[in-house]
Amino acid sequence: MARYDGSDFSIDLPDEAINATVHAFAFPQGRLHTPTLFIRSEHPHSPVSLSDYVDSQVALLQAANEALDVVRRRTGVWHGRDALDLLVDFGPPEQRLRQRLVYLDAKGEPQTIYILAATDTAETFAGNEAMFNAAILSFLPKPAE
């Protein structure tokens, strides 16, 4: 068993358990849908290019949601690390959601890929885009200890 010591708790887990920590932030605005920002990290079992990783994730999303449309896909570099930025729409027409997914390869051993997902309704996303962008642009992985 491996011991996980988080900031709020500790737990014993089987050795093969993978830490798939998710940080979730909500931005209440007094309406039915609350805009959110999720940050999670993944450690691929073997090194993978960021583009291949994102392609596999998009394929999984499209398989789970036929109504998923990739609106925009941009590649770039973020603080010297490979990054890929997606904008997708999904859900039924009357409840369409828009999500910005930023994938960041933090390099290192083991490879760590961070995924930042900002979500709001397609109708109101533009009104919160500056807030989402400010938060996303401030994200910086801490160096490995």
Structure description:
By secondary structure, this protein is of the alpha+beta class. It has a single domain, classed as Mog1/PsbP, alpha/beta/alpha sandwich (Protein Transport Mog1p, Chain A, 3-Layer(aba) Sandwich), CATH 3.40.1000.10. It has 2 helices and 8 strands, in the order E-E-E-E-H-E-E-E-E-H. It has a 6-stranded antiparallel beta sheet, sandwiched between helices. A two-stranded antiparallel sheet has the order 1-2. A hairpin with a 6-residue loop joins strand 6 and strand 7.
Which percent range describes the beta-strand content? 35-45%
Q: Mind summarizing the main beta sheet?
A: 6 strands, antiparallel
Order of strands, main sheet, comes to 3-4-8-7-6-5
Low-pLDDT stretches are none
Overall 3D form: globular
Find the CATH topology.
Protein Transport Mog1p, Chain A
Radius of gyration over C-alpha positions, nearest whole angstrom: 16 Å
**Helix segment count?**
2
- Name of the CATH superfamily: Mog1/PsbP, alpha/beta/alpha sandwich
Mean pLDDT: 90
Order of helices and strands: EEEEHEEEEH
The count of β-strands is 8
| CATH architectural arrangement | 3-Layer(aba) Sandwich
Q: N- to C-terminal separation?
A: 22 Å
CATH class: Alpha Beta
Q: List the domain count as a whole number.
A: 1
User: In which range does the helix fraction lie?
Assistant: 10-25%
Query: What structural class do you assign from the helix and strand content?
Result: alpha+beta
